[in-house]
Amino acid sequence: MDSKKFTKRHYLNISIALCFSMVCLTYPSFAQKSTPGNLKGLKGQDSTYYISNQINFGGKLGWESRGSLIQATNGKIYGTTFEASFAPVMLFEYDTNGTLTDTIGLPAGDQDAQAGLLQASNGKIYGTTAFGGNNGQGVGTLFEYNIQKRTIINRVIFNRANGWSPSGGLIEYPIGSGILYGVTSATGPNPYHNCCAGPGIIFKYD
After folding, report:
1. Which residues neighbour 26 within 8 Å (Cβ) at sequence distance 6 or greater?
2. Which residues contact 73 (CB under 8 A, 6 or more apart)?
3. 10-24 burial, b for 16+ CB within 10 Å, e for fewer?
4. Per-10-residue mean pLDDT for the chain, 206 residues long?
């Protein structure tokens, strides 16, 4: 990890659940069968809106994309795939003219990128994975993507003691400070019971 430091802040007294489900939008008059990750071109009878197929997720690009998209200061759109077949989880760059301009694999072992991305005031993009790190032995990561250099590195590898499965998005606070905050689903060991994981935490990365 670089000169920045990682701090475990507070235990959470609420349960934060990871959701492994897909939200489907259907409309009886034009519902169509679609392959996973494929947003079909659909048009309602009243012609008030149209959904066009921009990127077909599948195979080496990744089977699902669950996190929210961001538009970076360079005008391009960035997101991640949740998982990939025979390939790393991917971070992708999309130009709004309809071109998938770049893809880059997350570090080996990173899994389940589902919380979305954040572009911090330093221009770099940050995100988390709910599992992986340390060649798959960790329990989540905080990663950094350098747009200019096209490099991704893990800045934090969660190891149960400092948190387990970061499940929500990141924020920068105060804005412009470079200090990031996030939450994990659990930590460990449980301070109240030796048998299980402990409660989630709020963490700080600066």
Report:
1. none
2. 119, 123
3. eebeeebeeeeeeee
4. 62 37 32 38 50 63 77 94 70 84 86 92 96 79 96 92 88 96 83 66 93
* 129 touches 138 (CB < 8 A): no
Residue pair 89/113 in contact (Cβ under 8 Å)? The answer is yes
Encode 13-71 in three state secondary structure.
CCCCCCCCCCCCCCCCCCCCCCCCCECCCEECCCCCCEECCCCECCHHHCCECCCCCEE
Alpha carbon distance 154, 171 (integer Å): 17
Closest CA to 81 of 106, 100, 98: 106
Backbone angles phi, psi at 25, to 5 degrees: -110, 125
> 3-state SS of 78-116?
EEECCECCCCCCEEEEEECCCEEEEEEECCCCCECCCCC
Non-local (6+) Cβ contacts of 153 within 8 A are: 107, 143, 144
Q: Distance between CA atoms of 89 and 105, rounded to whole angstroms? A: 6
